[in-house]
C-alpha cells in the first residue's frame, strides 16, 4: 500500500514516471547487529549496482535504518546519484493518512537529492532537512518554487524513466 | 546560510568520512576529507577550513594531538571532536584544550544540525565582533576602569562624579539594591584628592548596633566582655582617605547622634577610652531606602541627613538603562570565562533579546549572577536562549513595556513561531506578513527554536 502511494506521489509531485519492481533482499553485510538496524549506505551501494535500466532507484524498507554516523535515518540517498532508500519504520502513526503522507514526503525528499538538489532553507519546502518527526510533519508535500524550477531543469536534461525497487 | 563554509572531516574510517561528507554536502557545505592527522595538516595548508570534525581515536597522530596542532596553526578554527561511547572523558579533555564541542557517534540528526547552527552563529558573531571591536574600544576608553555603561543616564552619573570627586563634600548615593552603589563610591574615592589614602567601607545594615559601634569607633582593651585587645575602628582607619557607610538608613537614631558629632568635631573616642582621636576623612554614604520618608516617620534624624546628604547621586536601576545590558553582559562574560577557562564568545541575538526584555529587579548584581550561571551550564561557544531559559520562566512578570520596537519584533516573532510549533506558514499568516518575509526575519534575527 505504502509503495503504491509513494509511486503515485513521485509521479504527481515530481513528474517522474514510476514503476514498481519486485522486492529484493538487502545484502547480508547491511545488518549491524550491535545496533539492530540496517546501514543505509551499504544497501544504497547494492541498489545502485543493480542493472535494470532505470536511471533512478528508490528502495522502500520496513526495517529501521542508520548510517555510520547517525543513530537513525528516515531515508538516505546519493546526491545526484542513482539510488536512494527510505525506511517506514519511524514513520508509523495510527492515522494511516499521516503515515502515508510521511512516507511520501521522505521519498520525494530523497528523490530530490537523486536529482541533485541539496537542502533548502525554505521551512515548508520538501527539501528542507527534517531531523525529527515533528519537523517532517510541518513540511508541505511540495517543492518550493526554487526547488521546483531546479527539478524541472534537471529532468529536462535527463530523459527520466524512474524505477522503484521494493 | 553561507555556502562558503568549508568543513574538514578527519577520520581514519572511510565510511565515517563519507557519511559526514554526504550529509554536509546536502546541507550546502564544502567538504575536505582527511584519513589521518598528518593528511589533515597537509590539506589545511592548501584549503582554508572554517570547521574541523576530528575523530579522537586515530592511529599515528590521535585527535587530541591534531587538535593541539590545529589550534596552534589556526587559533580561530572551530574544532569538533568525534568520539565513541566510552571515551567521553577524552572529549571533555579536548574541550579544555580548546575544542568547541563534541559529538558522540552515532548521533541523532537533531544533534548534528543544532551543532552546525551553533557553530555558524558563533562564526557569524565573531566576524561581526571583529568589525565592532574598534568602535567598542573607543567607547570603552572613555569609561573608567570597572565601569561599563553606554546609557545617557549613567553618563550623567559619571559627569556628576567627575564634578564632585575632587571636593571634600559628603556624597549620598541612592539607588535600588544591586545597582553598584559601592562601585560608585569607590570611583569617587579614586578620583578624589585622597585616592592615595584608604577606602574604608562598612555595611551598616549587616550588623547589630553594638557591633557596628565597636567596628566604627574601635575599642580599648577591656571595654566590654570579649574586648581582649585594643582595636582601631573604621573611623580611625579612614584617616586621610574615604569612609563609605553603606545602608546608612539602617543605623539607629542614637548612632546617628554619635556620628553627627564625629562629623562636626572630627574627633571621637574609642569605646572604653578617654583619649580623643582625630581622623580626617571624606564621608560617602548610600542607601536603597527613602530617607526623607524615614525622617517623616522619625526613624532618621534630619540634622544628620543634611550633614551626609550635601550632594545626592541617584544611580538609575538597570531597567531604566537597558542599553547598558549588552556591554555589562559582555563584561561579566569575560570575567567568568577567565574564571572557568571556558571558550565562550558571546550571545545569540535571541539571548540578548531575552536579557534586554527582563526587568532586572536585582539590577547589575542579578545580571552578574545570571551570566555566571549561564557560563557554568553553557556548552558550545556561544550563549543561546537555552542557557537563559530559567530567566524566562522566573521572570514572566518582570517583562517590560520599555522595549525598543526592534526587540518587541524579535520577541513577538519568536512567541508566534513557538505557539505555531514553528509552522512558518501558519506563523506568517498570524503575523500578517508573507512567508518569505518571515523566513528572512528568522535568519536575520537568528531566531532559534526554543
Ligand atoms: Zn536530505
Ligand atoms: Zn526548496
How does this model look, in words?
Chain A is an alpha/beta fold. Chain A has five helices and eight strands. In chain A, helix 1 (2-14) crosses helix 3 (96-114). The radius of gyration of chain A is 15 Å and the shape is globular. The model of chain A is unreliable at 160-166 (pLDDT under 50). Chain B folds into three domains: 6-132, Rossmann fold (3-Layer(aba) Sandwich), CATH 3.40.50; 145-316, Rossmann fold (3-Layer(aba) Sandwich), CATH 3.40.50; 319-445, Helicase, Ruva Protein, domain 3 (Orthogonal Bundle). In chain B, helix 13 (325-340) packs across helix 15. Chain B is elongated and about 90 Å long. Chain B starts with 5 loop residues before the first strand and ends in a 6-residue tail after the last helix. At the A-B interface, loops of A face helix 1, helix 5 and helix 19 of B. The complex binds zinc ion (2 copies). One zinc ion binds next to helix 3 of chain A. One zinc ion binds at residues 109, 113, 119, 129 of chain A.
Report Rg of chain B. Answer: 29 Å
**Could you tell me the strand content of chain B as a percent range?**
5-15%
Q: Residue-averaged pLDDT of chain A, rounded?
A: 88
Q: How does the helix and strand content of chain A classify structurally? A: alpha/beta
Distance between the termini of chain B: 20 Å
Domains counted in the coordinates of chain A: how many?
Answer: 1
Order of helices and strands of chain A: HEEEHEEEEHHHE
CATH third-tier fold name of chain A: Collagenase (Catalytic Domain)
- In which order are the strands of the major sheet of chain B placed? 2-1-3-4-5
Tally of alpha and pi helices of chain A = 5
Architecture (CATH level 2) name of the largest domain in chain B: 3-Layer(aba) Sandwich
Give the number of DSSP strands of chain B: 16
Amino acid at each position: 500500500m505504502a509503495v503504491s502511494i509513494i509511486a503515485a506521489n513521485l509521479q504527481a509531485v515530481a513528474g517522474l514516471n514510476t514503476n514498481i519492481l519486485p522486492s529484493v533482499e538487502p545484502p547480508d553485510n547491511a545488518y549491524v547487529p550491535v545496533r539492530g538496524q540496517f546501514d543505509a549506505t551499504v544497501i544504497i551501494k547494492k541498489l545502485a549496482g543493480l542493472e535494470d535500466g532505470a536511471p533512478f532507484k528508490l528502495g522502500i524498507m520496513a526495517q529501521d535504518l542508520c548510517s555510520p554516523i547517525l543513530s537513525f535515518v528516515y531515508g538516505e540517498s546519493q546526491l545526484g546519484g542513482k539510488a536512494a532508500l527510505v525506511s517506514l519504520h519511524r514513520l508509523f502513526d495510527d492515522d494511516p493518512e499521516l503515515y502515508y503522507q510521511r512516507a511520501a514526503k521522505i521519498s520525494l525528499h530523497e528523490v530530490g537529492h537523486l536529482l541533485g538538489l541539496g537542502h533548502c532553507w525554505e521551512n515548508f519546502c520538501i527539501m528542507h532537512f527534517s531531523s525529527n518527526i515533528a519537523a517532517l510533519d510541518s513540511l508541505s508535500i511540495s517543492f518550493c518554487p526554487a526547488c521546483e524550477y531546479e527539478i524541472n531543469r534537471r529532468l529536462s536534461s535527463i530523459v527520466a524513466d524512474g524505477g522503484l525497487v521494493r | 546560510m553561507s555556502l562558503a563554509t568549508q568543513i574538514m572531516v578527519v577520520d581514519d574510517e572511510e565510511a565515517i568520512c563519507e557519511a559526514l561528507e554526504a550529509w554536509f554536502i546536502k546541507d550546502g557545505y564544502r567538504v575536505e576529507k582527511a584519513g589521518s592527522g598528518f593528511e589533515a595538516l597537509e590539506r589545511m595548508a592548501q584549503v582554508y577550513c572554517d570547521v574541523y570534525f576530528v575523530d579522537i581515536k586515530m592511529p599515528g597522530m590521535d585527535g587530541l594531538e591534531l587538535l593541539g596542532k590545529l589550534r596552534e596553526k589556526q587559533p580561530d578554527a572551530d574544532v569538533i571532536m568525534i568520539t565513541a561511547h566510552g571515551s567521553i572523558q577524552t572529549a571533555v579533555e579536548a574541550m579544555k584544550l580548546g575544542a568547541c564541542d563534541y559529538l558522540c557517534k552515532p548521533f541523532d540528526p537533531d544533534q548534528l544540525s543544532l551543532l552546525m547552527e551553533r557553530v555558524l552563529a558563533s562564526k557569524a558573531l565573531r566576524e561581526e565582533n571583529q568589525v565592532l571591536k574598534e568602535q567598542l574600544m573607543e567607547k570603552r576608553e572613555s569609561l573608567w576602569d570597572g565601569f561599563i555603561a553606554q546609557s545617557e543616564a549613567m553618563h550623567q552619573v559619571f559627569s556628576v562624579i567627575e564634578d564632585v570627586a575632587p571636593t571634600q563634600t559628603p556624597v549620598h548615593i541612592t539607588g535600588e539594591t544591586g545597582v553598584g552603589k559601592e562601585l560608585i563610591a569607590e570611583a569617587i574615592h579614586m578620583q578624589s584628592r585622597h585616592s592615595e589614602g584608604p577606602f574604608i567601607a562598612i555595611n551598616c545594615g549587616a550588623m547589630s548596633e553594638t557591633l557596628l559601634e565597636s567596628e566604627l569607633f574601635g575599642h580599648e582593651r577591656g571595654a566590654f566582655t570579649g574586648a581582649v585587645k585594643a582595636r582601631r575602628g573604621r573611623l580611625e582607619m579612614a584617616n586621610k582617605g574615604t569612609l563609605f557607610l553603606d545602608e546608612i538608613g539602617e543605623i539607629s537614631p542614637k548612632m546617628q547622634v554619635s556620628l553627627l558629632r564625629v562629623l562636626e568635631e572630627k574627633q571621637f573616642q574609642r569605646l572604653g577610652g578617654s583619649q580623643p582621636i582625630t581622623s580626617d576623612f571624606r564621608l560617602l554614604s548610600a542607601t536603597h531606602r527613602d530617607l526623607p520618608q524615614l525622617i517623616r516617620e522619625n526613624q532618621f534624624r534630619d540634622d544628620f541627613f543634611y550633614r551626609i546628604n550635601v550632594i545626592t547621586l541617584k544611580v538609575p536601576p538597570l531597567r531604566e538603562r537597558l542599553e547598558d545590558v549588552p556591554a555589562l553582559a559582555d563584561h561579566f562574560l569575560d570575567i567568568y570565562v577567565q574564571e572557568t577557562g571556558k571558550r565562550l564568545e558571546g550571545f545569540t541575538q535571541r539571548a540578548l533579546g531575552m536579557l534586554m526584555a527582563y526587568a532586572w529587579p536585582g539590577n547589575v548584581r542579578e545580571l552578574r549572577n545570571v551570566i555566571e550561571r549561564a557560563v557554568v551550564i553553557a556548552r558550545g561557544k556561544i550563549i543561546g536562549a537555552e542557557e537563559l531559559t530559567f530567566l524566562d520562566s522566573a521572570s514572566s512578570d518582570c517583562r517590560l513595556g520599555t522595549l525598543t520596537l526592534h526587540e518587541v519584533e524579535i520577541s513577538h516573532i519568536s512567541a508566534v513561531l513557538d505557539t505555531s510549533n514553528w509552522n512558518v506558514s501558519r506563523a506568517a499568516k498570524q503575523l500578517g506578513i508573507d512567508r518569505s518575509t518571515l523566513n528572512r526575519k528568522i535568519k536575520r534575527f537568528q531566531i532559534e527554536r526554543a
